[in-house]
Amino acid sequence: MVPFSLSVAAARYMKDRKRGKILNIGSNSGMTGVANNSLYCKSKAVLHAITMSFAVELGPYGIRANALAPGTTLSEGTAKRIEENHGRAKAILDSTPLRRFATPDEIAAWAAFIVSEEADFANGTVFVVDGGKLAGR
User: Fold this and answer.
1) Which bin fits 131, alpha (ψ -120 to 50), beta or left (φ > 0)?
2) Per the domain annotation, does 92 fall within a domain?
3) What is the CATH number of the domain that holds 110?
4) Predicted TM-score of the model (pTM)
5) Which residues pair with 126 in a beta bridge?
6) Is residue 84, in this structure, part of any structural domain at all?
């Protein structure tokens, strides 16, 4: 798993500096089941667990590890899939209390916050930013 390998490599340098921040990008799908998407859900759940383990292992070295778990984000790829399957888009929107997709800029803003000084006490947290979708399950 690439995020694991990259985090291990980066942590070596961060340990020497006694500080660092690791942010893995997970998904709200890693916290629930999604029909016909079991391998994706599994991979994101594993990434969330690895992030929490890194937080415990690396915290004593001043290294924070967190994950961002966005909901469906209106990227170019998502827009194409929506165009091909309007029914799927409606189902996602109907199950999201805010009744819209996230924008890439919204997810980027959350990522910037998580690695900012304002969030320096957050460690081992999976930040779910999904318009309330998991809350409504």
Assistant:
1) left
2) no
3) 3.40.50.720
4) 0.93
5) 67
6) no
Nearest to 51 by CA among 84, 23, 19, 16: 23
Q: Considering 1, 25, 33, 40, which one is annotated as catalytic?
A: 40
Contact 20, 62 (CB under 8 A): yes
Closest CA to 6 of 42, 59, 51, 71: 51
Domain total for the chain? 1
In sequence order, what are the residues at sequence separation of 6 or more whose Cβ sits closer than 8 angstroms to the Cβ of residue 1? 43, 46, 47, 50
Domain containing residue 58: 2-6+21-71+103-129
Residue 20 has what pLDDT? 98
pLDDT in tens, 26-79: 999 999 988 888 999 999 999 999 999 999 999 999 999 999 999 999 999 999
pLDDT over threshold 80, residue 96? yes
Q: Is residue 93 part of a domain?
A: no
Given 3-state DSSP classes, what are the helix, strand and coil percentages for the chain, each rounded to the nearest 5? 55, 15, 30
Amino acid at 103: T
Catalytic: 13?
no
The verdict on residue 109 lying in a domain is yes
